[in-house]
Amino acid sequence: MAGAFQHRPVFLEVSMKRTILRVSLWLLTGFGVLLLLVLIGVGVYTRTDHFRSLLREQALTAVRSTIDGEVAFERITGSVWKELVFHNLSLRQNDVEVIAAPQVTVAIDLLPQVIAFLRTSEFRIANLTLASPTIRAIEDTEKGWNLAHLVRTSESAESSEPSTLSIFIDQIKAEGGTIFVQQPQSEEIRVSTLALDGSLAVLPAGMQLELATLNFSLARAGVPEVQWLSALAYDDSVSPSVVKVDKLDLRTAGSHLLLAGTVHDLSAPTTALTVEAEKIAAAELRLLAPTLPLQQDLSGSVRVTGPLSALQVAATLNAPDGNVNAAVTANVEQTPPRYQGTLAIQRFVVDKVLQIAGVSGEMNGKLSFEWTTLEAARANLEAHAANLTAQGWHVDSVDLTGNLNAGQLAVTAAVTGKSGDAHLQSQVALSTPPAYEATVKVNNLDVAKVGGEGNATLAGRLNLDAWAKGSGTSLEDINSEAKLTLRPSQIGSIAIKQGRAAGSLRKGQLTLDEVMLLANDTTLTAQGKIGMAAQSSAAPSGKLTYSLLSKNITPWLALAGQKGAGGIELRGTASG
Asked: Are 424 and 411 in contact (CB under 8 A)?
């Protein structure tokens, strides 16, 4: 008996443990079954029309609180646990449908994302797909672009605590989209066949956007249709923010351009961009600028580097018969901006590259410059043209030099050819009013070219020296004087022995101090004053004394295409 009672407590203890274990298993099994039934019930409920209607209303309420516009969609299909499809999405602003899509699909594995959100404040959407979206981008002169005002700004955003939420969209896709772009007083631009594939991350530190594909066609009236193929990335979660262009490929029917590079800090950009122009069709450029006389296709490159305070631009433009090179450094942050650089033209055959009636020849030249203001500008030009033809004039060579320094412009030109030689030296002070002085020396000028090709009556050679000095540009402000000296010359059958003219123009009055011409058996002298009318409708007035003695007027009549003989003697005064 005593032994049996001694083992009874142990038996009871074991039995109680088994009972507790059995009850616990029943409870866990019951809870599991209940949870399963709840999940099944929730799963079934989420597929009902009542839940989808409720979800639609809640989604619209949430979106309308953040969007400045009218948001609507017809219905929601799919599963809230895996994928939702929004049908006929529409966003209107100011009675304009800004965004429309017949179908927007959002793929998300909800339960794992809820758990991840609770643990790490991260929320991930696997896929966001827009089918055939239509977007209208409209610019207002006062408010700017409408798309920039779609999202409401929070008044308490500045005072609220920094957000710790991170949202990831692993894939954003758009296929067959269309964008209409309307700017003030401009034709509408149509962007069609939009194809987009990328990803988006909205982090506490900023946004990361990567577009592995952004392709579309751009059409506008009067402009060649452009095919845009690109791969871009933007990251403002780092400081400074950065835009990376892995590829930007622009193609038209006749042209092809490639762009790549980076831009750091859009608020104060530092740029490293390269544009390669494999071909720029002259015919397409003439569509953009009908008056452009270009007739050869172009190629070249442009390299832009540095911040706005030290922006460097290197450009090369090539045609089959000419090259243009430019290198510019600019500080566009200072006021006024400062520009410094060089521009060079090499072996530029005018009549092959350009189509300008009556102009041909080859040109070479180089311009170096520094510019902030006109008063402080500095520049130097050296140019040479060979076998230059212009409107019937032909010269073997033209040499031109120019120098600008502290508002003083000096220009020297030398022209040589079968039509004659000419030399020019000039100084211009770019003041208010401008002041100027110029000297011209002409030797053996073919005067037949002045009257046009084939004018036999003007056959001859002219030699002269001219000088002018003064200031002002309007008739009331001009204060100038000039001298002209004719050296022995021949015009038709007229032999000019010598000639002189000297005078001045001051405050609208022309004073002829001396006019004298000795040619053949003819002597002409004149002097006087003529008031030049400031208004074209008013007649000039003044007084002129003259003397003309010619023993033989036959050559003078022949010069005018007339016939006759005799002599003439005139002396008098003309006034009015």
From this structure: yes
